[in-house]
Amino acid sequence: MKKIKRVLSLLLALTIILIVSGCTAGTGAKGKKAIGIIQYAEHIALDQAREGFIDALKDNGYVDGENITLDIQNAQGDQSNLSTISDRFVSNNVDLVLAIATPAAQSIAGKTSEIPILATAITDFEVARLVDSNDSPGRNVTGTTDMNPIKEQIDLLVELVPHVKRVGIIYTSGEDNSIVQANIAKEVIEDLGLSHVEVTVTNSSEIQQALESIVNQCEAIYIPTDNILASAMPNVYGVTANTKTPVICGEIGMVRKGGLASLGINYYDLGYQTGIMAIDILKGEKKPADMPVQAPADYDYAINGTIAEEFGIAIPERLQEFVFEMEE
Amino acid sequence: MLDILMGSVSLGLLWAVMTIGVFITYRVLDIADLTTEGSIAMGAAIAARGITMGLNPFLSTFLALLGGMAAGLATGLLHTRLKIPALLSGILTMIALWSVNLRIMGRANISLLRMNTVFTFLEKIGLQKTYASIILGFVFVGVLVVFLYWFFGTEIGSAIRATGNNPYMVRAQGINTDTTIILGLIISNGLIALSGALIAQNQSYSDIQMGTGSIVIGLASVIIGEVLFGSRNFMGRLISLVLGAITYRIIIALVLKLGMPANDLKLFTAITVALALSLPVFQKYLTPLKRSVKGVK
Is there a contact between A74 and B98 if contact means CB atoms under 8 Å apart? Predict the structure, then answer.
């Protein structure tokens, strides 16, 4: 009996805390539009997309605490947390959700078919079943894709390393986005009459050995946008510096940390572009169902001058303006 | 606000199936089985693949259960036949399952948005998704608890329980402990995969990384259940696991609710779980205090 009482009182206490905290942290403020941001993991590209989104709102007169309230939640890579965060947004009945990365978008899209959802950093909206089609989403989800200009990246690789015969590819086997990109890259490489050698990893501890197994078999390495490899670029640099094998990356952030060059998406701009879409929705002028999924407006070149010099790579005249020095 | 509580209950019930699985290895068999991280993702993978291939969602979920049992069998054989320590056997199967799961899904992420899942038929009769999953979760957990209570009362079930307590005694009774360990691992991982299948259908996608951190969630739920709702009889222990899993989800909802800076989420989760677990210790300090106050009167 005593035990039951204790258990009941504890459950009651938890419930009360939940309700009280709900009243204080809730988004019930009058007249302000509530925007929930659900981010899958802490990651430089995803963080930049979030900042770009928030800045786009700010530049258009939507300021957190003034006329909108932002509820920024990060699942820290734990997918079960995505569910709880989605429940929170649906329960608070926010006016708009920004979902960053595929699992986050799928999680919130599975919980509501009414709240408008903008998603960014999604490689393929159709495959993720977030939209009926990219041109006419037809539901409550739309947004911006971060599909890489892979063809252009491989062209850049050939331009910088003209003697290349075989391209090494390394990526994480557990990331759907990476697999899709690696497959496209392989096709592009073969179309150019080159050959490839690929190796995959499942976590960052495997990167060093995986890379060492291919650096001597290829003249250049291609890495798609890949969360695990993005975090391990200093390690990639450490291995490739021994053989002076240049690395072309899927995104610019990776070049800063040890790659040679990239032609890639600027995630801040991508987030900003998503923010502009949000404004149309917030004003009530458009609905996600009728807003086509947008591709990045343009891409940025980035060339790591420090590494180019160290590896003895000549930078063509037209790309000189994109060269920068690596921070130590 | 009620929605969030209900959301925690619905998710907690689905994770309770997994918590019971972890309990069977961790407490009943006294083995820390890391197969969990692979088998939960395997359950999700099989269910998602089955559903996208057009199989009945209940059949897909059942296949997931069988897949998890096979994973448990693999760990059991590594441990008993090849004499690899239990912890390592579990790790080996977990690593192998990563590739197996990728093969099953054919890719790293399968979306189940707008697919026919086990929850769909309840939603069709007008129930909200959360309540549909609470009802179905309740049915699954209820049936499981009753079944396991019965099973662990049978001769072979009692032998499995005894194996974790005192293997020498069990062997002295003429029972092969290898068999009981393998059986325990099969049941445990079957349940964990079943849980993974249900969670994937509830969150509307299956992802290869779904298992990451799941063993910690499972162990935390087991211990929260024991500390807060613990009981001596077996039925009570099973129920405490379900309550433990739900409490864990409420704690997470609470931490998110408090609006912590995103980067501190994990730290505060750990602190809150630690606080919940140390409640009995505080109670011990409080009780003599109350008595002394009464004594003064």
Answer: no
Chain-chain contact of A84 with B250 (C-beta, under 8 angstroms): no
pLDDT tens string B182-204: 999 999 999 999 999 999 999 99
Number of domains in chain B: 1
pLDDT number for residue B206: 94
Q: What is the CATH number of the domain that holds B107?
A: 1.10.3470
pTM of the entire predicted model: 0.83
Nearest to B258 among A25, A80, A129 (CB): A25
Q: Which residue of A has its CA nearest to B119?
A: A110
Range of the domain at B271: 2-289
Predicted complex ipTM: 0.79
Nearest to B11 among A17, A80, A103 (CB): A80
The model's pLDDT over B211-224, given as tens digits with 9 standing for 90+, comes to 988 998 899 899 89
* DSSP H or E run through B109: strand B109-111
**Structural domain includes residue B111:** yes
| Domains within chain A, CATH numbers bracketed | 32-146+268-290 (3.40.50.2300), 150-265+300-324 (3.40.50.2300)
Inter-chain contacts counted by CB atoms under 8 A, chains A and B: 148
